[in-house]
Amino acid sequence: MTEQPLKISIRGLKKSFGAKEVLSGVDLDLEEGKSLVIIGGSGTGKSVLLKCVLGLITPDNGEIAIDGVNILKLSPFERARKTRQIGMLFQGAALFDSLKVWENVAFRLIYGEGKAHGPSRNAAMDRLAQVGLPPEVGDLSPNELSGGMQKRVALARAIAADPDMLFFDEPTTGLDPITADVINRLIVDRVKAVGATAISITHDMVSARKIADEIAMIHQGRIVWRGPASEIGASGNPYVDQFVNGRAEGPIKMSLKNT
Amino acid sequence: MNPVAYTGRAALSILAEIGAISIFALRGAFAWVSGPFYTREFITAAQRIGFNSLPVVGLTAIFTGAALALNIYDGSARFNAETFLPQILAVSIVRELGPGFAALMVAGRSSSGMAAELGAMRVSDQIDAMSTLAVDPFKYLISPRILATTIMLPFIVLVADIIGILGGWLVAVYALDFEGATYIRNIDAFLTTEDVTSGLVKAGVFGFLISVMGCYYGYKSRGGAQGVGGATRSAVVASAVAILASNYIMTSLFVDF
Ligand SMILES: Nc1ncnc2c1ncn2[C@@H]1O[C@H](COP(=O)(O)OP(=O)(O)O)[C@@H](O)[C@H]1O
Ligand SMILES: [Mg+2]
Fold first, then answer.
1. How do strand A6-17 and strand A20-31 relate by DSSP bridges?
2. What pLDDT was estimated at residue A257?
3. Residues A213-236 pLDDT 10s
4. Cα dihedral value A68, A74, A79, A82, nearest 10
5. Same-domain pairing of A174 and A79
6. Residue A258 resides in a domain
7. Same domain, yes or no: A69 and A101
8. A168 shares a domain with A158
């Protein structure tokens, strides 16, 4: 197999909030076109890690290279240009509740790229169709939608500008297993269609196996294991085993205070 | 803790906060300059501030004018100066009470409203989502609100001035036996353009401060519904303090001795 160029390369990434160290030296590489799933307990810094790559949180230390360029060394303007190639599905969908569904999907086209309303609306309706939503949904308000439909709209919004990287933060958390499966399929389908490099966060092992080429496990602010998705059941790593099998006993101690 | 250290630390943290608000205000006021300017957001914000505030500002103004007329009459009668009631009332309203009361009412409504709205957007990741969609939240959310409030408040104050003077007129004519037309003529002959414009300049500054506080505390809010509640409270308190403090500074600049 030939080596793909690295799309994302993270070295020694550290971030503390006050006295609490959330990321304590994350190293992570991702080849172009691959789909990586990050698993790990609640509050272990998975969302913070994605937000660092997106430029929404400034890390204290370390390096984040996108296409070989360390974005932390760029000017804010240049960094924004780089991180703009990333589409993000937020944990709670984060739809703009003051706008209609189609305006959410077309938000980047209209307000970010200055495109006209008419064509943007059509493009938004196409995207909604790609995530299995009929055009009528476009004229609803986000709070009229179920959780699963909100996730679909958020997915349509994230892919609207054909990004070359896609991040998904707990896309199936809070959904019933059937809706979760629909979302997983859409993610796999859309990531392939857009040809994007993907990072997904989940604690749902069913989702992880479906979405991932590779899986990485984060614990106490570090990546403790990384391997092909097919090996997750036989990793031989006690952290991964405990997480995958959902046991309270093991090396991962859940303190009641931090969860 | 030792009280000196405690006081010192509190003073430092207030200074740091004022610094952070100033930087935020500058960024918010000028973010739109490099484009794009979101006209629709600006118009929506202006409409909301104007139409939402007018009823409550009007009510405040009419009662203030009415009460002021009684007080001035009672006070000035002690040295037989009650015929100057119209002039004193008009000057008090256009220079001080119109801008002050209108701004405090708008602070209660709009500053808290902005903090609640932006705070809810912050804690539900909508502001972060906006950045990932290649739209600068300062340009889309903050600038339109600051510009709209700064521009709208002088108009609201103008309305408050007129209604306040009307409130005084009603009391003067119906309760204190003033002659209606003379009352208006006296005001008209006495008031200078500077009296009115100084009040409107104040209004613009108050509008700026109100929207900066509302946006700042909303934008920075953390930690769910409780955080948003705290943000609205801070926004209203900070707006009120900023209005009263800047009012004194501006008054001392406008009144030359
Ligand atoms: N902006 C922030 N300010 C302060 N603390 C934060 C912030 N964002 C996240 N944290 C803290 O960092 C820790 C990790 O959060 P997060 O990355 O959201 O966890 P998860 O792995 O569940 O996604 C949590 O304890 C959270 O409270
Ligand atoms: Mg998270």
1. antiparallel
2. 53
3. 999 999 999 999 999 998 888 888
4. -30
5. yes
6. no
7. no
8. no
Chain B contact residues (CB < 8 Å to A): 36, 38, 121, 124-126, 128-135, 140
Residue nearest to atom 26 of ligand 1 (CA): A43
ipTM of the complex model? 0.92
| CB proximity under 8 Å: A 89-148 to B | 90-92, 94-97, 107-108, 111-114
- Residue ending a domain, choose from A123, A144, A162: A162
A250 touches chain B (CB under 8 A): no
Which of A145, A162, A179 is where one domain is finished?
A162
CA of residue B232 relative to chain centroid, distance: 16
Chain segment B213-222, per-residue pLDDT in tens = 999 999 999 9
Residue A255 lies in a domain: no
pLDDT on residue A233 = 85
The DSSP annotation for chain A comes to -PPPPEEEEEEEEEEEETTEEEEEEEEEEEETT-EEEEE--TTSSHHHHHHHHTTSS--SEEEEEETTEEGGGS-HHHHHHHHTTEEEE-TT----TTS-HHHHHTHIIIIIT---HHHHHHHHHHHHHHTT--GGGGGS-GGGS-HHHHHHHHHHHHHTT--SEEEEESTTTTS-HHHHHHHHHHHHHHHHHHT-EEEEE-S-HHHHHHH-SEEEEEETTEEEEEEEGGGGGG---HHHHHHHHT-SSSS----TTT-
Residue A241: the pLDDT is: 87
Domain count, chain A: 2
Distances (CA, A) of B257 to A61, B117, B247, B249: 58, 44, 17, 14
- Residue A22 Cβ contacting ligand 1 at under 6 Å: yes
**CATH code, A54:** 3.40.50.300
Q: Give the position, in ligand 1's atom list, of the atom nearest the Cα of A41.
A: 21
Give the pLDDT band (50/70/90) at residue A256.
Answer: low
Range of the domain at A50: 1-85+164-250
Res A1: pLDDT: 47
The pTM for the full model equals 0.92
Question: Which atom of ligand 1 lies at the shortest distance from residue A46's CA?
Answer: 21
Of A135, A220, A148, A145, nearest to A182 by C-alpha is A148
